[in-house]
Target: Signal peptidase I
Amino acid sequence: MKEFSSWLVEKTEAVLTWRARRKARKKQREAAVRARRNTLLKKLGGLFRELVETVLIVLVIQQYLIQAYVIPSGSMEKTLMIGDRVMVDKLTFGPEILPTVGKLPGLSSPKRGDIVVFENPSYISPGVAFEILHRFIYMMTLSLVDINRDEQGNPRAQLLVKRAVGTAGDRVRLEEGEVFYWFPGEGGWIAERALLGKGVRFSYRPQRLVSPDMYPLLEKAARAVVWFSEGFTPDLEGRAAYQRIADSNELVDYYAFELYQMGERARLHPEERDYARIWWQGAMGWYIPPGRLLPLGDNRDNSRDGRYFGTVSLRKVLGRPIFRFWPPARIGGVR
Model:
């Protein structure tokens, strides 16, 4: 019995020792797993905080200092081409407090000849919440992802980039596609071309694609269109001009064509003041009041700009392109 008791105690101690060691090993494994999990969570938490901080820094920089922007149209050719990606200085002219909400004061105001990025006066916003989401994605992807698209999947023209051709106090008009100025205190009109190359503000070169020989034909064709719409038979010269333009593949200055039509309608219907008002504004140009500017595209014959929607408030001007970073072959400053 004594030997059996000793054997039983020995075996019991062995079992208890084995169980204690197993529990100890289990606790060690669980502690190691918890430690690895905690370490992983700490790393993930650290990465998440770094990501949030990076996102906030990028958003602050792009909202208030400098933002990437892609050129959507050819209105600024050859200064800026479709698809060019540029960095836009937002600090100089004053950034928005939040997308579409308020505006902080800038260091200066746009000057005549500056390229400016501004809100499209014809743009209808889907709402502030969507605008904030759209701007967030647009800024975080450096303009690569644009969710603000129309029914056909094309990006909506929310922001436009043009040149500030007229500033406060100027009078500006277009005649046969050419810009003319009447500066404050001056006694008459002066052609833009006479000022090009005279200083930094007129160092740009507008592009003209419509030949000066086209304008007499446009005027005759416009008269023919108006006569036909009024039930009259256009004269032979007008019909020939219209047919020549219709059969030609040449670019047409549609703004001048519409203005010629307004002039003819005003002549036929002097009682209709709207015709005369539109024609008179086109003939005499725009006066740019304080706090506004007149934006025009450098591609003067193919630009939907201030000649259609008028002057733009300085509160809607968001920045100025200063550097082109894509494509590689066109990397460089913007002027």
Remarks:
- The longest helix spans residues 2-64.
- Residues 1-62 form one domain.
- The chain has a mean pLDDT of 85.
